[in-house]
Specification:
This protein has nine helices and two strands; from the N terminus they run αααααβααβαα. The protein is an all-alpha fold and about 350 residues long.
């Protein structure tokens, strides 16, 4: 070791001590920030678990949904394995209906023949076999059953033909599949439940809303800095990148205390005015209510189209009748033609009577 190195040794030791102190301070700051962040994450996790115990059970919820789909698939496979005839039952029913329709048509034809004959064979004796009586009794019974089925069908589901029936069947199938998948992931409710509530209130003023948003961004930035996060604000006190505020989990928000206060206060607004609560409108409506509203709109459109066609047909009928009436000769036209005819005839008679006088 040379003399020059010995002279510089105290300086090297002092620099080494400063570097070690600085490193210890940085490690302490990082450890403190991690501790604050872990505490905040723990509090947030506890709050989320208080709202929903299954908030972090991703795999369990997915498995339940897949189980519901698998059960539906297995039910279809069982139906396919049984290999029940698809069309023979419908064909037999159609054949029986056609036979009864044929018997009814024959009965109507015979009844019309008797009406045309009148009292010509009134004094004759009529022979009716027991088989014919049984056959007519079967026809009457089939007509009564068909009438009851038709009335029950109309009361239960309304019109079942055309595009309205197709859309309704398609929506029902999709709704059943969706309900089965969702029901497998939901817990059974205890006690009575209420439909979703959508409270319509007066929207806030734009300036107040902007001020509130700016204040909330500043508050969020302050809390994030206390937790050890690096959050930047622009000149308008708005957070530049809100992704810095996110953490692990679902990032659920707290309960909306303003809406709970409105419900507890008997539905009164800020100025004491009553607010209107709706349970089946907007985005808070359930899937079934939305599809029901679509189904009603389709049926309304079909009814309007039918009424429009009926109105056009009636207008065409009236126009055709008006043209036919305009072509017919009125009473005045007939009287005028008759007078002209009599005048011509009178004139011919007078000319014929003058000719002999001229000849003499």
């Amino acid at each position: 070791m040379t003399l020059q190195m010995l002279l510089h040794l105290p300086r090297l030791l002092l620099a080494t001590r400063r570097l070690s102190r600085k490193a210890k301070g940085t490690d302490a700051q990082q450890l403190y920030a991690q501790t604050l962040e872990s505490r905040a994450m723990k509090k947030r996790r506890e709050a989320e678990l208080a709202v929903d115990e299954t908030v972090f059970e991703y795999d369990e919820v997915y498995d339940k949904m897949q189980e519901a789909k698998q059960r539906a698939k297995e039910a279809k496979e069982v139906d396919a394995k049984e290999r029940k005839p698809k069309y023979i039952e419908g064909l037999l029913t159609t054949a029986a209906t056609r036979r009864l329709d044929h018997l009814r048509a024959e009965e109507k034809m015979m009844q019309r023949e008797r009406e045309r004959e009148g009292d010509e064979f009134k004094d004759k004796e009529a022979f009716v076999t027991q088989a014919y009586k049984d056959q007519m009794e079967e026809v009457r019974r089939a007509e009564e059953e068909e009438r009851k089925r038709e009335e029950e069908r109309k009361k239960k589901s309304g019109p079942t033909t055309g595009m309205a029936h197709f859309y309704r069947k398609l929506l029902d199938e999709s709704e059943n599949d969706h309900s089965a998948a969702v029901a497998a992931t939901q817990k059974r409710a205890v006690g009575p439940t209420m439909p979703p509530n959508l409270t319509i209130t007066k929207p806030p003023e734009p300036e107040a809303e902007e001020a509130k948003k700016a204040a909330s961004d500043a508050e969020l930035a302050r809390r994030a800095r206390e937790e050890g996060k690096d959050v930047e604000l622009n000149d308008d006190n708005q957070i530049v990148d809100k992704r810095e505020l996110l953490s692990a989990g679902l990032n659920l928000r707290g309960t909306n205390t303003r809406r709970l206060g409105l419900q507890a206060g008997g539905g009164k607004g800020k100025d004491g005015e009553p607010v209107h609560a709706h349970t089946a409108v907007g985005t808070a409506a359930s899937r079934r209510e939305i599809e029901e509203r679509r189904r009603r709109e389709i049926q309304q459109q079909l009814r309007e189209e039918e009424e429009r066609r009926k109105t056009e047909k009636e207008e065409e009928e009236r126009a055709r009748n008006a043209r036919m009436v305009a072509k017919r000769n009125t009473e005045h036209d007939v009287q005028s033609a008759r007078e002209r005819y009599l005048a011509r005839k009178r004139q011919k008679l007078e000319e014929a009577s003058r000719e002999p006088e001229v000849a003499q």
